[in-house]
């Protein structure tokens, strides 16, 4: 018989036959040397006890192997069908160690499946958001282009149409740039380079980007930032986050309003408060304003695509910080940025 086809039962039978032959030979040899029948009977009794114990042990081991193989097959079937994780017993033996490894493998597989499903859902949401955002400017561009091609009009009117077209192109360019920044941060293509440096220079650069628009709306901007505050942060991306918050403050603050920026140094964090005198945000919507492309219905006439606060939160979070909003309708808003000192 081929060794590969040798089953456990055949192996046990062969082992029992071999032991029986050896025992019979030993008893025969003992009788021939001693001629004492008592020794023969005692030897037979001992051999029977040994065989009985061996048979019980083999039966117990066989039962355990069958139960283990059944449980193992059931566990694998459950894992393939996505059922609950296998139960892990506390006993420290070979069977339960294997079962424990299977449970860990199952959890890793489930986490990977959840991660893949989340990535797919995020990708679908992103594609849907981008499609929604580019639909309006593309439609406007098609309409302007068709009008210019199909109708003759004065040069002044053509200039107005071209200016409108330029505005839509700028909106598309701004959207693409914002999406590129967001995707690079999320995918890790760009890693933040945190260095110990003054916060004053970073804040000054962010403020420089909004002063012109603030002056156009006659918005008074006041800043209180000690020059000696030094902490580890990425100057470029932190400036980007602060600029996005400040830019929102300028957009949603009416003409003649006020924006106050104050910086406080705490033991573990540096707190940057950006307070505006705008219309404020209701408490029910304060958790939604950081979602990508979220914009309130009441402010759709204000220029923007709703990605600035999302990008700001991602940048601050990647540096171990967080953003807190305090606001009420009709009372303005305060965005508090907390950056860790370490």
End-to-end separation: 73 Å
The coarse silhouette is elongated
> Could you give the order of the helices and strands?
HHHHEHHEEHEEHEE
- Mean pLDDT, to the nearest integer, reads 79
CATH superfamily of the largest domain: Histidine kinase-like ATPase, C-terminal domain
Tell me roughly what share of residues is in helical segments.
55-70%
Class computed from helices, strands and strand pairing: alpha+beta
Summarize this structure briefly.
With 342 residues, this protein is of the alpha+beta class. It is built from 8 helices and 7 strands; from the N terminus they run ααααβααββαββαββ.
Explained architecture:
By secondary structure, the protein is of the alpha+beta class. It contains 8 helices and 7 strands; from the N terminus they run ααααβααββαββαββ. It has helices at residues 8-34, 37-81, 94-150, 155-187, 199-208, 211-216, 235-252, 308-318; strands spanning 195-198, 220-224, 230-233, 258-265, 269-276, 322-327, 333-340. The strands form 2 sheets. A 5-stranded mixed sheet has the order 2-4-5-7-6. Strands 1-3 form a two-stranded antiparallel sheet. A hairpin with a 3-residue loop joins strand 4 (258-265) and strand 5. Helix 3 packs antiparallel against helix 4. The longest helix is centred in the middle third of the chain and has 57 residues, at 94-150. The two termini are 73 Å apart. 16% of the residues are buried. The mean pLDDT is 79.
């Amino acid at each position: 018989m081929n060794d590969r086809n040798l089953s456990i039962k055949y192996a046990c039978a062969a082992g029992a036959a071999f032991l029986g032959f050896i025992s019979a030979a030993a008893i025969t040899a003992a009788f021939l040397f001693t001629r004492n029948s008592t020794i023969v009977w005692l030897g037979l009794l001992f051999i029977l006890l040994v065989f009985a114990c061996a048979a019980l042990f083999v039966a117990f081991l066989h039962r355990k192997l069958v139960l283990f193989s059944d449980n193992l097959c059931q566990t694998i079937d459950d894992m393939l069908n996505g059922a609950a994780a296998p139960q892990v017993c506390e006993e420290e033996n070979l069977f339960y160690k294997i079962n424990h490894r299977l449970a860990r493998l199952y959890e890793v597989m489930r986490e990977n499946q959840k991660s893949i499903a989340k990535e797919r859902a995020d990708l679908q949401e992103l594609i849907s958001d981008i499609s929604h955002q580019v639909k309006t400017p593309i439609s406007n561009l098609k309409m302007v282009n068709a009008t210019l091609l199909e109708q003759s009009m004065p040069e002044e009117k053509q200039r107005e149409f071209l200016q409108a077209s330029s505005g839509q192109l700028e909106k598309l360019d701004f959207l693409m740039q914002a999406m590129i920044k967001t995707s690079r941060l999320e995918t890790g293509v760009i890693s933040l380079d945190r260095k110990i440096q003054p916060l004053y220079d970073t804040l000054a650069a962010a403020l420089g980007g909004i002063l012109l628009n603030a002056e156009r709306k006659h918005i008074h901007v006041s800043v209180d930032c000690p020059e000696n505050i030094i902490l580890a942060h990425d100057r470029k991306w932190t400036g980007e986050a602060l600029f996005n918050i400040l830019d929102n403050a300028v957009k949603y603050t009416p003409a003649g309003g006020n924006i106050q920026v104050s910086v406080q140094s705490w033991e573990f964090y540096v707190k940057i408060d950006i307070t505006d005198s705008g219309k404020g945000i209701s408490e029910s919507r304060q958790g939604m304003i950081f979602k990508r492309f979220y914009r309130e219905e009441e402010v759709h006439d204000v220029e923007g695509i709703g990605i600035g606060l999302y990008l700001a939160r991602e940048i601050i979070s990647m540096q171990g910080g967080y953003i807190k909003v305090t606001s009420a309708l009709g009372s303005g808003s305060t965005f508090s940025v907390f950056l860790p000192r370490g």
